[in-house]
Amino acid sequence: MELNEIQAQCAQAAAEVCDQAKLRAGDLLVVGCSSSEISGEKIGTHSSVEVAEAAFEGIYGVLRERDIYLAAQCCEHLNRALVVERAAYERFALDEVNVVPQPKAGGSFATTAYRRFADPVAVESVRQNAKAGLDIGGTLIGMHIKPVVVPLRISLKRIGEATLICARRRPKFVGGSRAVYNENLL
Q1: Distance CA 38, CA 52 (A)
Q2: Residue 127 zone, left/alpha/beta (φ > 0; ψ -120 to 50; rest)
Q3: What is the DSSP letter of 39?
Q4: Residue 31 in 3-state DSSP?
Q5: Which residue, among 50, 51, 59, has the nearest Cα to 12 in the 3D structure?
Q6: Exposed (0-12), middle (13-18) or buried (19+): which is 148, by Cβ within 10 Å?
Q7: What DSSP string runs through 100-153?
Q8: Per-range mean pLDDT, top range of 1-5, 162-166, 169-173
Q9: pLDDT for 83-121, tens place per residue?
Q10: Is the N or the C terminus of the chain less surrounded, counting Cβ atoms within 10 Å?
């Protein structure tokens, strides 16, 4: 698959998630991305900065237009720490950790975010402040999304060869069988 196709797919996926999850300016979207899986390889085996850059550009372009923060999840070698911009770090009162992601220790997507953000900060957690997310290639992002996490169906099922799973949060239901719920929050 061509890099411009990967970028276009990622932009489309990000836009659909933002729309369906009803994200607003100042919200946080988490992305876990396996460049290996996009390329048709097993996660963690063929990290590609070029593929990650294409994915990042597609997603980040959409989020910047909407003033939505991106949290780029690192791989398991960094305990799924995240890279955010300093403004998100401050807005959500996150805890900084001292690590600079690398393609084989953090992943190419998080490495790209660290290189492309104007003022990147690595954080241990976003404290479940993400309102939605994209899991490109089985990276397991659900832990970063505020409960209750629900699947989000968009038109794309794959980015390159990687399975795409999207999620959003919804408020918890309270009450019993007589409770009435706000349809806009479902």
Answers
A1: 9
A2: left
A3: T
A4: strand
A5: 59
A6: exposed
A7: --BTTBB-HHHHHHHHHSSSEEEES--TT-BSEEEEESS---GGGBPSSEEEE-
A8: 162-166
A9: 999 999 999 999 999 999 999 999 999 999 999 999 999
A10: C
Q: 134 has which bridge partners?
A: 31, 166
- ∠ Cα 10 12 16 (to 5°): 115
The structure's pTM equals 0.94
How many Å is the Cα radius of gyration of the chain?
16
Q: Which two tokens stand for residue 71?
A: 């949290």
Tokens standing for 7?
Answer: 């970028």
Determine the 3-state secondary structure of 94 from DSSP.
coil
Query: Which pair of structure tokens corresponds to residue 118?
Result: 């104007």
